[in-house]
Structure formats: structure tokens, C-alpha cells
Write a structure and sequence with these properties.
The complex is a heterodimer of chains A (471) and B (175). Chain A is mostly helical. Helices cover 71% and strands 0% of the residues of chain A. Chain A has a single domain, classed as Formate dehydrogenase/DMSO reductase domain (Formate dehydrogenase/DMSO reductase fold, Up-down Bundle), CATH 1.20.1630. Chain A is built from 16 helices and no strands. The longest helix of chain A is centred in the middle third of the chain and has 34 residues. The termini of chain A are close together. Helices cover 46% and strands 15% of the residues of chain B. Chain B has five helices and four strands; from the N terminus they run βαβαααβαβ. In chain B, helix 3 runs antiparallel to helix 4. Classes of the chains: A mainly alpha (471), B alpha+beta (175). The interface between A and B is large, with 53 and 60 residues.
Chain lengths: 471, 175
């Protein structure tokens, strides 16, 4: 007895239709797209106003003062770095594993990586206060009397993030070249000029494809260790400090798992939005959503496990400061945020275990946003409680962030959203040539399976392994 | 004798593959598989069975980038740190290897990735003016076989393509 499985994509879809559908999406989105653009612009204007106040009136308006030198800005920085992880990392891993269901969704996930990193990069600059000195974050040797400390994880951050940003952008760009050639062949006006330049004269000959395949494979191989190193280094910003709650051995894997988790949740959010905005129901299908949701669930469980490891290490480690901090997180003024983190991050993912919920787009949209709210709380709960309850009792304090700080954090979501929405309007958010590859190879394998089945039917049942099933 | 360039368009990859296989079997004397360029809307690694091994040198550049990155990383960091002697080190080494390894690792990847990218740009024949025979159908759903050959061979090769259900043959005189 054979069980029919739902296909990731309609294998009979015509290649010309794939081109038409994706190219049309860049011209003609639903009105909701423009509404979202307007919302993003409004959010950015809030952040610009808040930054103007902070710039002209001083950092006091962000409530950043001893001991709270780091607060929401750094938590948000870690959040955006984390968000950037799934796109490129998962795309690279799934590419190496030949998981072809990634093909309709990897493009926007990689774009998400790039724009998340660009958003994250703003926060150290905003956090500096003196934004005109922002080039000081770059670790270069100079005569200005500032000695870059290459032992500091903050200097490592600058190296790691700039490497990751440039590598992710290259990975995204290289993967787009064949599609840019399709756009070039079909566009008019300014778009034609843009795509002609960006497609670099791609013709699709066997030499180009051969080099393309090797390049993409090599890039994927480098991006996986790079992505892991970036978030490990970000975790070192905390783990290298001898502060309660930060000096934890499991921080690097904990950060990497958290990053993958929030990135996967963001992929689901953007999946639902793009599917609706651009009428991509035939490409961003329910089986692909199911696979993404299952992956998110698995990573959520890893993150939960690492949380338990951290809590139990602190509990049984009997370090007075660490234990007090853990108890304070669970029962003190930050308790509502802490428990929200646990509920959103560890309990809510169980909704992804239900098939009917995984296939319901509005539910997935809401769940994915709440998962990311949980992950934002996680980053906040890493930064704020430690600084509130460090070694010196006279410095104990509770920090909720000022309106200015929250305004800038709020606006960063608009900034990310706007960059992303512009990208998907100008560039194809579904990889046309790879969807064609997916269809081509699946049609072929279906044909081969049919042939084997027909051949097996002609043989006597005794010769056929599993012959009972075929009857 | 004039040289001709042909572009034959096929709707079916299998037919294009079979046509190249016929050329490989010398079914048209004087035309070899080395004269063939296949153009396709998607990647077809299986065509290498008939086109033969054509080298890709990108990994050599990647390796060079990686070695350069890690070496440059060490020299850059230790060179910078060596100028910090005036700064009190508090008994720590002037050139601390463990933290430098982290940055050397990043630089290894940085240069390897960029060298891979640049070698791809230059080795894959991009930045060339597209041939007058370029067909937009190749980026849509058809497979093209491009050949440069003498006048005398155009007739037999067209017959071969017809045998494999070619949709269209475009031709230009090169010289």
C-alpha cells in the first residue's frame, strides 16, 4: 500500500509561468504591500525623531548611565545579529544537503540576513552617542592615540560582522545572477539598465554554470563556519566578562541556537507576508511551510535544552552571584519578561507540532511574531538583569529603557522592513532558475520511479522486493 | 572558406544532450565537442558526461585567498600590536596568540570568499559582450547549442539538429 505525499511544488508548472509569476510580483503587489511600506516609514520616523533627541540632548535621554552602560541598544544589536543567522546559514546548510525545498524560499531568507546585519550595524553607532566618531568602531591602526585592543571581543565583533556582511551579500548576489539575467531579458526602462549591469553579461552557457556551481558550493562551505563564528563572537562580548549571568561556558552554542531560532521564526513571518503580497501560493507552498515550521520547532527544543543546561549549571554550581541573579530573574522585577521569554520561546513552539496549525497562515504569522518577541526578551534578559544585579549591591537598580531608547528600537523594525520590502520589489524574491531546477529534477525522478514501477509490475511478484506492497 | 556560428534551440534537454552526444561520437566529421557551447536556463551538471571534463580553477584561488588571509591576518595584527610597546601590557604578551587566532580565522574566510568571488567573475567569462545570436528563450525554457564551424560543416550539423527535433537554428557569419 502506498501513501500519497503532498508535493512541495506542482511539478507540472510551466517554466514560462514561473518567469511570468515572479516578474509580475515585482510590478504588481497587493495593496497590503504599500500599506506595510507606509507603516515601516512611520516607524522609521519615530526612530529618527528619537535619535534627534538623543543626538541633540545627550545620552542621558537614553537612560544609559552607570551601571547600565549597555541596555536595549546592545540587546537589540544581538537580536538583529541573531535574526541574520538563519537566512544564509540555513540556505548554505540546506544547499550542501541537497534539500531542494529551500529553493523557493532561500532568496528572501538571504536578503533578510543582509538587512538584519545592516540594522544590527546601526546599534553600536547609535549606542556610541557621538555618532560623528562612528569610524572609531573600526579596528585600524592609527596615529590618533586610540589603541585598538585586539584582545577585546568588541574588536572581534567588528571583524566578524564585516566579514559576515560582505560574505552574505556576495552569497546573495552570486545566487541571483542567473535571475538578474532573466530580469534583464524581460525588463524595460531603468530596470533594464540596472539588471544589465548587475547580471554581468550572464548568458547561461555551460562554462558559466560550471563556475557558478563551484563558486556557490565554496561560498556555502565558508559561510557555515563563518555564521557560527559570528554569533559565538557576539556571545564572547558577554561571556568574556566576569559578570554574573554572562560568564557562562554554554553561551556560544546558546547564542547560535537562539540566532537560528529567531531567524527561522522571521523566515516564517516573511514567508506568510510575501506569499500574500505577491500571490506566491504556488511557490511558497504549505508543505514548504510545514518543513520550515518543523525545523523551527527542532531548533526551539535545542534552545530550550540549552536554557535548562544553563539554569542547572548555575543552580548546582553554587556560585552565589550567579544563583542570586537567576532567582532574581525568575522572581524579581524582571520576572514578567523572563517568564514571557520562557512561554514564548519554549512553550509556544509546541503549537508547531500540530499539522493543522502549521498549515494555517494567520496562525503561523502570529506564532512566528510571538516567537521573535520571546527571542527579543531573551536578549534583553541577558543584558539588563546582569547590570541591574552585579557584584556591587550599591549599584543595584532596575532598568526599563527610556522612551527615546524604545523609540529607536521600535524604528529599527521599520528600517529592516523597509529595506526588505524595497529589495523584494526590485529583485526577484523567488529564485526562478532554481524553482525550474526543482521542477525539472522532480519531474525526472517521478518519471524514473514510474518506469521502475512499471518494470516491477511486469516481473513476477516473487522477484520483486516488496512485491506485496505493489499489489 | 567562411566561418559560421550557429545557435540551435531545443525545447527538450534530452534532445540537446543527445545531439551533443552525437557530435562527440564524430557523427559530423570535422566538428568536435570542443567547438560546442551549451546554453541553458538551469544548471545541467549531467551535460559534462558528453561535453567532457572542462576544468574549473576557482578552488585554487580560494585556497590562495585562505592562505593569504591567515598570513596577512597574523602579520597585520602582530605588526599593529608590535607598535603598541609604549602601551602598558600589564605582564601580558605583546602579541597574544589565542585572541589573534580568532581574528586570523575571520580573515581567512574574508579573503577566501572575496578571492572566490573575483575568480568566478574572471574565469566564468562574464563581462563579455553578448553574442548577436543570444536568445532570450535560453533564459526562459529552451536549451541552446552554440557552435563555431566552417561553411562546409553547416549542412550536416543542421541535419543532425533536425534529427533531434531542433526548434530553431540561428546563424551568423563570423569571418
Amino acid at each position: 500500500m502506498t501513501m500519497a505525499t503532498e508535493k512541495d511544488i506542482n511539478e507540472q508548472i510551466a517554466w514560462a509561468k514561473i518567469n511570468t509569476d515572479v516578474l509580475r510580483s515585482m510590478e504588481n503587489p497587493r495593496p497590503a504591500y504599500w500599506v506595510t511600506v507606509a507603516v515601516c516609514l512611520a516607524m522609521i520616523s519615530v526612530a529618527v525623531f528619537a535619535e534627534y533627541i538623543q543626538y541633540t540632548m545627550g545620552m542621558g535621554y537614553a537612560n544609559l548611565n552607570n551601571p547600565h552602560m549597555w541596555d536595549l541598544y546592545i540587546a537589540t544589536f544581538v537580536f538583529w545579529i541573531g535574526m541574520s543567522h538563519s537566512g544564509t546559514l540555513l540556505s548554505a546548510i540546506l544547499h550542501l544537503m541537497h534539500a531542494d525545498w529551500r529553493k523557493p524560499i532561500y532568496r528572501f531568507a538571504e536578503a533578510m540576513t543582509t538587512f538584519s546585519l545592516m540594522t544590527a550595524g546601526l546599534f553600536p553607532i547609535i549606542h556610541l552617542g557621538r555618532v560623528w566618531n562612528m569610524y572609531w568602531v573600526l579596528p585600524y591602526v592609527s596615529d590618533r592615540g586610540v589603541w585598538p585592543n585586539f584582545r577585546s571581543p568588541l574588536a572581534w565583533d567588528a571583524f566578524a560582522i564585516s566579514t559576515y556582511l560582505s560574505a552574505s551579500m556576495l552569497f546573495l548576489f552570486i545566487g541571483m545572477i542567473p535571475d538578474l539575467a532573466i530580469c534583464r531579458d524581460n525588463a524595460k526602462g531603468w530596470r533594464k539598465k540596472l539588471y544589465t549591469v548587475l547580471s554581468l553579461g550572464w548568458e547561461g552557457n555551460d562554462r558559466q554554470w560550471r563556475h557558478f556551481r563551484k563558486t556557490y558550493l565554496l561560498m556555502a562551505c565558508f559561510l557555515i563556519p563563518l555564521a557560527v563564528s559570528v554569533h559565538s563572537i557576539v556571545s564572547a562580548d558577554f561571556a568574556m566578562a566576569i559578570m554574573p549571568g554572562w560568564h557562562v561556558t554554554t553561551f556560544p552554542p546558546y547564542f547560535v541556537a537562539g540566532a537560528l531560532y529567531s531567524g527561522c521564526a522571521a523566515i516564517i513571518t516573511l514567508f506568510v507576508l510575501l506569499r500574500y503580497f505577491f500571490r506566491f501560493e504556488e511557490y511558497m507552498t504549505l508543505p514548504i511551510m510545514e518543513k520550515t515550521a518543523k525545523l523551527t520547532f527542532a531548533i526551539a527544543m535545542v534552545w530550550t535544552y540549552l536554557n535548562l543546561v544553563e539554569f542547572s549549571s548555575v543552580w548546582y554550581g553554587h556560585n552565589m552571584y550567579d544563583k542570586e541573579l537567576l532567582i532574581a530573574k525568575a522572581t524579581g522585577p524582571y520576572a514578567p519578561i523572563f517568564w514571557s521569554m520562557i512561554i514564548f520561546g519554549s512553550v509556544l513552539p509546541f503549537t508547531l507540532a500540530f499539522r493543522s496549525l502549521r498549515r494555517h497562515m494567520p496562525t503561523m504569522f502570529v506564532v512566528s511574531i510571538l516567537l521573535n518577541v520571546g527571542m527579543f526578551f531573551e536578549r534583553w534578559m541577558i543584558v539588563a538583569p546582569t547590570l541591574s544585579l552585579a557584584h556591587e549591591p550599591h549599584q543595584w537598580d532596575v532598568m526599563w529603557g527610556s522612551v527615546v531608547e524604545w523609540g529607536i528600537v521600535f524604528g529599527s523594525f521599520g528600517w529592516f522592513g523597509l529595506l526588505f520590502l524595497i529589495f523584494v520589489k526590485v529583485f526577484p524574491s523567488v529564485s526562478m532558475y532554481e524553482v525550474k531546477e526543482m521542477v525539472f529534477h522532480r519531474q525526472r525522478s517521478t518519471g524514473e520511479e514510474d518506469l521502475i514501477r512499471m518494470t516491477d509490475h511486469r516481473r513476477p511478484a516473487a522477484e520483486t522486493a516488496g512485491g506485496e506492497e505493489l499489489k | 572558406m567562411s566561418k559560421h556560428r550557429l545557435l540551435a534551440l531545443f525545447s527538450d534537454f534530452e534532445e540537446a544532450h543527445a545531439a551533443i552526444a552525437d557530435i562527440r561520437r564524430n557523427e559530423v566529421p570535422g566538428v568536435t565537442v570542443d567547438d560546442v557551447t551549451m546554453k541553458s536556463p538551469i544548471e545541467h551538471p549531467e551535460v559534462e558526461e558528453v561535453l567532457g571534463d572542462r576544468p574549473v580553477h576557482i578552488p585554487k584561488f580560494t585556497l590562495f585567498g585562505a592562505i593569504f588571509g591567515v598570513t596577512f591576518g597574523f602579520l597585520f595584527l602582530s605588526g599593529a600590536q608590535a607598535t603598541f610597546l609604549v602601551q602598558p601590557q600589564g605582564g601580558k604578551p605583546v602579541i597574544p596568540l589565542p585572541s589573534n587566532f580568532v581574528l586570523m580565522y575571520e580573515m581567512l574566510i574574508f579573503f577566501a570568499v572575496w578571492l572566490t568571488f573575483f575568480s568566478f567573475l574572471f574565469l566564468s567569462g562574464l563581462f563579455k559582450k553578448r553574442s548577436a545570436l543570444y536568445s532570450e528563450k535560453v533564459s526562459l525554457d529552451q536549451v541552446g547549442i552554440m557552435l563555431e564551424l566552417d561553411d562546409a560543416h553547416t549542412g550536416p550539423i543542421k541535419e543532425l539538429f533536425q534529427k533531434h527535433k531542433v526548434l530553431e537554428i540561428r546563424e551568423e557569419v563570423v569571418q
